[in-house]
Amino acid sequence: MDRLEVICSRLPRCRVLADVGCDHGYATAYALRSGLCGRAYACDVSAASLKKAETLLQEEIAAGRCVPVCTDGLDGVSDADCVLIAGMGGEEIVGILSRVPLPERFVLQPMRNTEKVRRFLVARGARIEEDFTFEDGKFYDLIAGSGGGGDCYTDFEFRYGRDNLRAPGAAFLKKMRREADVVRQALSSAKEEREALLARLHETEAIIDAIEERL
Ligand SMILES: C[S@@+](CC[C@H](N)C(=O)[O-])C[C@H]1O[C@@H](n2cnc3c(N)ncnc32)[C@H](O)[C@@H]1O
Fold this sequence. Notes:
Number of domains: 2
Strand order of the largest sheet: 3-2-1-4-5-7-6
Bound molecules: S-adenosylmethionine
Mean pLDDT: 97
Oligomer: single chain
């Protein structure tokens, strides 16, 4: 399934959505046009990226339903009850969310360091309602939930994602099989390297023995 389709399918109904790092603005457009939210902020730190969203959302902007904001994270945006951050690194997502109170609802799609996002959310008292891996050419993680309510994760769940362990989907199984192949390959290279090193050691020891016998 298309990455953005998966993300949009997880957006909850809300009053005001903030799409942080909106770039082209597709998710904002989806949320507004399907009536999921009453208003939306399309936010991006890059003016060039925001321009794309402004072009796509010109009708909604003219109607006062969408406000484009060129800003770092959620700086200057305070009344959103749902925050979407997709396509950014986990550390960047944590950085953005740590500067504000957790939103009532969130949908996050980190590109890497998902474990750091899970740990941050649980430490801040969030309740994680969805936490799964999906595939669209590559593997992606999606985390959705509420800013309050609290949650409890095991170390394994922090590392792999709770839904992936409780109700694994085909994408997660495929990802784990891929990971096992990578580890097997690394082990086999390590074994070959060890054997080559042992052969070199035996060779040099044999030369040393031969020289020492002549002394
Ligand atoms: C890879 S795009 C993702 C676009 C869209 N959210 C998606 O998932 O398809 C990342 C976007 O995040 C923006 N961005 C990166 N860091 C940001 C920050 N700290 N605050 C706001 N936007 C940021 C970039 O300018 C870029 O447009």
